[in-house]
Design goal:
- By secondary structure, the chain is mainly α.
- 70% of the residues lie in helices and 0% in strands.
- It has 6 helices and no strands.
- The radius of gyration is 12 Å and the shape is globular.
- The mean pLDDT is 96.
Length: 88
């Protein structure tokens, strides 16, 4: 498991999901930070989240990340969860 994945999985304060991106970003640097920011930006795209069903949008985002990035599912889940709070 990469440092990126470990850092993502380590986030536990889901009472404040709006802090996920900042919390993870502050613990990364260099290429890992750039990769996380890219994943976040692309997985947050309105094209993915324009469906009216939040669960379906989460599945689409999860599949997008899985198909485009080499991340473990345990790391993809928290990213999608955090982004979904922005789209509720």
């Amino acid at each position: 498991m990469t440092n990126l994945e470990t850092t993502i999985i380590a986030f536990k304060d889901w009472s404040k999901p709006y802090e996920f991106f900042k919390n993870v970003s502050e613990k990364l640097s260099g290429e890992e930070l750039a990769l996380f920011q890219e994943i976040w930006q692309k997985a947050s795209d309105a094209e993915i989240w324009r469906v009216h069903d939040l669960i379906l949008a989460c599945k689409i985002a999860h599949t997008f990340i899985r198909n485009n990035y080499d991340l473990h599912d345990n790391a993809i889940g928290p990213i999608v969860r955090a982004i979904s709070y922005q789209w509720r």
